[in-house]
């Protein structure tokens, strides 16, 4: 029997990267999917490949989150899994950060998860699971990524608070806090050996992670194998959070 047989899951930010990998892994494990993303063409392609339903959604707008869960209610009479994966970044130094850029990132990364969690909790029965996509930057800081780090820190605390709030209803809430995962965004940063070495020097395992490695954790947190786990954040980071110094990067052929 597959680990997610019969489970109904909503995944945001499912058009690419980690969200796409989670959608693929959930489909392999037997889940039925509603996939949301602002990239309509991308999420439609993932839905076609996984047998899911694509819903073009700008999660920074509460009205569109409402519409997403209206669609879920039309398709199903309940919900078993929510993955709050949608996220964006914006690079700016502290003194240059504009209010509209902070608001956009915070709405996408944090407020969307809050409002989606509200909807999911109304639809879920005991045994439901919510998985939030946090980051090592919920704890660590990057000087020019203020709205991203702040939103991920808030998401970590939302995980804690909502886990306590929903525990009496038998709904678990956990998070995943990846380090550097080889998505298109990471590839755009690691444009040469020097840039790659800067990233790998802070990762004791000496490599980036893959979206599929994160997806396996998302399966664990959604299935019965983690039935006594709630309010936790798992960090697939190659050892980064435990590091208090940089390490030499071996020469690569």
Give a short synopsis of this structure.
By secondary structure, the protein is of the alpha/beta class. About 45% of the residues lie in helices and about 15% in strands.
What is the 3D form? globular
Q: Biggest sheet, open or closed, and with what strands and sense?
A: 7 strands, parallel
Q: How many distinct helices?
A: 8
Task: Find the CATH superfamily.
Answer: NAD(P)-binding Rossmann-like Domain
**Share of residues in helices:** 40-55%
End-to-end separation in angstroms reads: 43 Å
> Structural class of the helices, strands and pairings?
alpha/beta
CATH class: Alpha Beta
Number of domains: 1
Order of strands in the sheet with the most strands?
Answer: 3-2-1-4-5-6-7
> Would you give the CATH topology?
Rossmann fold
Strand content: 15-25%
* Average of per-residue pLDDT values: 94
What CATH architecture would you give?
A: 3-Layer(aba) Sandwich
Poorly predicted ranges (pLDDT <50, ≥5 residues)?
A: none
Radius of gyration: 18 Å
- Counted beta strands: 7
Order of helices and strands: EHEHEHEHEHEHHHE
Domain Ketoreductase: 7-179
Keywords: Oxidoreductase
GO molecular function: oxidoreductase activity
Protein name: SDR family oxidoreductase
């Amino acid at each position: 029997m597959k680990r997610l047989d019969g489970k109904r899951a909503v995944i945001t930010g499912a058009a690419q990267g980690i969200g796409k990998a989670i959608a693929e892994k959930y489909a392999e494990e037997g889940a039925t999917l509603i996939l949301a993303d602002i990239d309509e063409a991308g999420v439609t392609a993932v839905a076609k490949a996984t047998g899911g339903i694509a819903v073009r959604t700008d999660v920074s707008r509460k009205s569109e989150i409402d519409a997403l869960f209206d669609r879920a209610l039309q398709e199903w009479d309940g919900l078993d899994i929510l993955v709050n994966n949608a996220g964006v970044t914006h690079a700016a130094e502290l003194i240059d950060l504009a209010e509209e850029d902070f608001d956009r990132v915070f709405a996408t990364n944090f407020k969307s998860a809050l409002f989606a969690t509200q909807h999911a909790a109304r639809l879920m029965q005991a045994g439901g699971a919510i998985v939030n996509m946090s980051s090592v930057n919920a704890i660590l800081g990057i000087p020019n990524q203020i709205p991203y780090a702040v939103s991920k820190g808030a998401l970590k605390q939302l995980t804690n608070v909502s886990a306590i709030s929903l525990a009496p209803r038998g709904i678990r809430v956990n998070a995943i806090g990846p380090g550097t995962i080889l998505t298109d965004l990471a590839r755009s940063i690691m444009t040469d050996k020097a840039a790659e070495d800067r990233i790998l020097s802070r990762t004791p395992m000496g490599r980036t992670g893959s979206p599929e490695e994160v997806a396996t954790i998302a399966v664990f947190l959604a299935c019965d194998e983690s039935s006594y786990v709630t309010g936790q954040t798992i960090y697939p980071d190659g050892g980064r959070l435990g590091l208090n110094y940089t390490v030499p990067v071996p020469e690569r052929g």
